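Page header: ASSEMBLY MODEL / two components / 228 residues total.
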Amino acid sequence: EGGLTQSPATLSVSPGERATLSCRASQNVGSNLAWYQQRPGQAPRLLIYGASTRATGIPARFSGSGSGTEFTLTISSLQSEDFAVYYCQQYNNWLTLTFGGGTKVDIK
Amino acid sequence: QVRLQESGPGLVEPSETLSLTCAVSGYSISSDYYWGWIRQPPGKGLEWIGSTHHSGNSYFNTSLKSRVTMSVDTSKNQFSLKLISVTAADTAVYYCARLSIPAGAFLDYWGQGTLVTVSS
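Prediction written out in full:
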């Protein structure tokens, strides 16, 4: 139920550039998808829920889109603090939550 | 501000029981939200373990269901995880978090995580 595949595994981007991360669901999850950021040594932080709604305090350079099985997280202009690992999570069936394998965004 | 803090032994012997507690502050655990546990083996991704509610309802990852129990202590505003018969594969950072149900089962507040190593 609800397997998630993230691509690419690693994305090398220069500061100030745009980053586009993909999350593909094995089944239709509607808009029940969230994105998290995890910096080294820290807990994950909620960025996006409902596929496209930014969580409280999240900068506008983060945006989410998609529905059904194809989702995208876009970071419009990468800042130094944005180099991290990003995970998607589906909650269409909230009795069984699943995460994607993650995309690491590192400095080019 | 909602805060969650995990506590428990950092080292557990193989075949023993892993027990962790998550203390919640700034919010009543008796609300309609669910509370969950997630783990992350060293250098790997996130794995949902299960979710629990003060009503007694709990839901678990099918791969761990036979070994997991969760409970809520409303008097102490905390919830707990027990994982029996642990092996080295259970070595991970364990996080507790709040599920933002009824809005959706995304995880809006997280604890800082605690590393549990399974080793003799």
